[in-house]
Specification:
Layout lengths: L11 E6 L9 E6 L5 E6 L12 H4 L2 H4 L9 E3 L8 E3 L2 H19 L4 E5 L6 H14 L3 E3 L5 H11 L15 E5 L3 H4 L1 H14 L2 E6 L11 E4 L5 H15 L4 H7 L3 H8 L4 H8 L3 H13 L3 E5 L9 H15 L8 E3 L11 H4 L10 E3 L3 H5 L14 E5 L3 H4 L3 H8 L5 E6 L11 E4 L8 E4 L5 E5 L12 H11 L12 H11 L5 H7 L1 E3 L4 H4 L59 E4 L15 H7 L3 E4 L1 H6 L7 E6 L2 E9 L7 E3 L35 E7 L3
Helix pairs in contact: 3-18, 4-18, 5-13, 8-11, 8-12, 8-13, 11-12
Length: about 700
């Protein structure tokens, strides 16, 4: 006998998008039980980029959503900052106290004393970016978001004039896939999906260029391990060989590039011998790579973020993007270079951000220099007054920001009020005055776009949140009411109404239509994506000779900030420039703080499975270096430089070159032996020309800890 199961008792599948700070922006299918709890999370098989594959940490998202340590009640600090004593309060009281603190800060030091601070804990536009509308309405200090994309996007746009490129799904149609400066197995699994398909179906070769033998390198047919900060030297030598051996497509360059003759002359001294001495590669490795891409028309260069997180990162990106231009690879399906599709989506966030209310006289403060700002550095403060009140959403600066000791010192100031809206008691929340609990992505509505692919995706609420947590939008709207700006443009809308407005700017129907469709593919036509109609400059030509000062770029600082770093030292043509922290006698090692497979920035570091799989904070060092320093595998060691020193355990491995150290993370500070994390050692000085954070560019000393 068949017994009908009432609809209320049936499980279902919810369709949404991954919200996290990753270019893949995977389309997701989520099992939902009859009780309204999520279960298995998997990639959407019918999304042509996600193709049914997601990373393991997101697949086990239920572990995070139902974590016993999740924040569920608003809290007020009791006692000293960081002491860990809290009192539960109501939502109205929490919001009232935040608003009162902002009003007090403004009355004492002016509106710029308040600094709303956020980043990419969610990539959903409504929940991430609505804080900007409050900032502009109240004329609070501006937020110069420098920590992630500045170096990479600047380098690419200096070359191509646009943030777009060949369809990432064309990787599967390539005969050679070059994965340059991104550990895709750990951070962009879909890149590997399409690369492996190309190998299986076409016999494509996979080349991986990185600074250590990471999981992506282990998938490579050709692995090139370069010294940190030397990628431009490799690119220059490859182009030198292309001109020397006839691989250069002179007809293509004559039509599409600005000065191929000048480039060829410039590269005459950038020989494989020269590059081998700089990069640590052998001459044979450089020659073999150049020959492979030079003789393979369908060579697809997938350029990541990792190799740009050096002080010369913009130069490295420009040089790498120049290689397929010399080879003419852009002309072919499965060829060319891709980094980001950020320009293709055709949507405006102007109302969401409140751009009509922007006051150009309000100072812009650099996100990466939060430690300097909160400890009173006059230059970082733009020679204006102090920051005395903050609202923090979607980020954990006490853990993730450079110059960690300064950051923590600043947050411990007694005269600084901080409210943190979070999922867990992060190390930033631990130093706050008010902590309020936030919804997670399956518990609210939002809209996403995948910079590493081509889809606009909807992320609708698919389960009910705990009754005591609130969305980011709710917090912004309630503060706007208390601060007297709720009548300004853009306020007073629900998530769905805000999404309707955003979609309308692109000529699309609203939330309900996108919910039915799940996503919209915005990949440009082949000719546009491959720049066959011209690159993104007025003359349509690729720039071998970039205008580092004058070229418009998505992360260019406002005039009030100006150009940053030693921009006068940037090269005329692609070249190796040692603006990096070069190892010296006192700091003989170069340290990179590369991402771990089971964490995403500081997210997932709270989940038991991720922590168990990662083990403990360690630094990887070569056996020859270990022998010289009398260090054995598992020993406690101390790393240090001019910013401070920390202790963690050694992992002796052939995966890294001599003179190079890699600490995969990002582990919480408290997971380290002395409660201080790896960002004690990273610097916040702004790289040229538009700033950024050079997380993988640190000279350090290393010694066995005496105990």
């Amino acid at each position: 006998m068949n017994i009908a199961i009432p609809n209320s008792q049936r499980s279902s599948v919810g369709h949404t998008a991954c919200p996290h700070d990753c270019p893949s922006t995977c389309a997701l299918e989520v099992d939902i039980s009859a009780e309204g709890r999520i279960g298995r999370v998997r990639g959407a098989a019918d999304n042509s980029y996600t193709a049914g594959v997601i990373c393991a940490k997101v697949a086990r998202y239920a572990e995070r959503l139902y974590h016993p340590d999740r924040l569920l009640k608003p809290l007020r600090r009791k006692g000293a900052k960081g002491a860990g004593a809290w009192q539960e309060i109501g939502w109205d009281d929490a919001l009232d106290e935040i608003a009162e603190a902002f009003v007090k800060a403004e009355a004492t030091h002016g509106t710029e004393a308040v600094w709303p601070y956020f980043y990419a804990g969610t990539m959903g536009w409504v929940q991430r970016d609505s804080i900007e509308r409050l900032r502009h309405a109240k004329r609070y200090s501006g937020f110069f978001g420098s920590i992630c994309t500045n170096l990479a996007w600047t380098g690419l746009v200096m070359a191509t004039g646009a943030l777009r490129g060949p369809d990432p799904r064309e990787i599967a149609k390539s005969d050679c896939v070059v994965i340059w400066g991104t550990n895709a197995v750990a951070t962009q699994v879909n890149v590997m999906t399409h690369a492996v398909r190309a190998r299986k179906e076409r016999g494509a070769r996979i080349v991986v260029i990185d600074i250590y033998d990471n999981p992506t390198m282990k998938q490579a047919d050709m692995g090139l391990i370069v010294r940190p900060g030397t990628d431009a030297a490799l690119a220059c030598a490859v182009m030198h060989i292309a001109f020397r051996d006839g691989y250069a497509d002179r007809a293509y360059m004559e039509k599409y590039a600005d000065d191929p003759a000048g480039l060829e002359e410039h590269l005459k001294s950038r020989t494989p011998e020269w590059a081998a001495a700089v990069t640590g590669l052998s001459i044979e490795e450089i020659e073999a790579f150049a020959r492979l891409v030079g003789t393979t028309k369908r060579s697809y260069f997938r350029l990541g973020y990792g190799f740009t997180r050096q002080r010369n990162g913009a130069v490295a990106m420009h040089a790498a993007a120049s290689v397929p231009t010399v080879l003419g690879s852009w002309q072919h399906e499965g060829g060319g270079a891709f980094h980001s599709n950020n320009d293709i989506f055709g949507l405006s966030k102007a109302e969401l951000l409140g751009t009509a209310m922007v006051d150009p006289d309000i100072r812009m403060l650099d996100q990466s220099q939060v430690g300097r700002i909160l400890t009173g550095d006059a230059e970082a403060l733009r020679h204006r007054g102090p920051v005395t009140a903050m609202l923090i959403q979607n980020t954990n600066p006490v853990n993730v920001a450079p110059e960690q000791r300064l950051v923590k010192q600043g947050f411990l100031r007694d005269d600084l009020f901080v409210a943190v809206h979070e999922h867990f008691m992060t190390e930033t929340a631990e130093l706050a005055d008010i902590v309020i609990p936030a919804t997670m992505f399956v518990e609210h509505d939002d809209i996403y776009r995948g910079g590493g692919q081509s889809h606009i995706l909807l992320g609708p609420k698919i389960v009910e949140p705990p009754p005591t947590v609130r969305t980011n939008l709710f917090v912004i709207e309630e503060l706007a009411k208390r601060l007297g700006v709720a009548d300004r443009p853009g306020f007073g809308k629900s998530e769905r109404q805000a999404i309707d407005v955003i979609l309308a700017t692109g000529g699309f129907e609203g939330f309900d239509d996108l919910k039915d469709r799940k996503w919209i593919d915005r990949q440009p036509p082949f000719e546009e994506a491959h720049f066959l109609n011209g690159f993104g400059f007025a003359d349509g030509r690729f720039r071998f000779r970039p205008d580092w000062v004058g070229t418009p770029a998505p992360n260019k600082p406002p005039k009030s900030v100006g150009l940053l770093g030693p921009y006068g030292d940037l090269p005329e043509f692609p070249d190796q420039v040692d603006l990096i922290e070069v190892a010296d006698a006192d700091h003989p090692y170069r340290l990179a703080t590369s991402p771990a497979r089971n964490f995403l920035n500081s997210t997932f570091a709270e989940t038991p499975t991720s922590r168990q799989k990662e083990g403990r904070p360690e630094v990887m060092l070569n056996p020859d270096d270990a022998s010289r320093e009398d260090i054995a595998d598992g020993d406690l060691v101390r790393l240090g430089n001019m910013r401070g020193s920390i202790r963690l355990h050694a992992r002796v491995t052939d995966s890294v070159r001599r003179g190079v150290l890699v600490a995969e993370g990002l582990w919480p500070n408290k997971a380290h032996v002395d409660g201080e994390g790896i960002n004690v050692l990273t610097g916040a000085d702004a790289p040229a020309p538009h700033g950024g954070a050079a997380f993988h560019d640190n000279k350090v000393w290393l010694r066995k800890d005496a105990g």
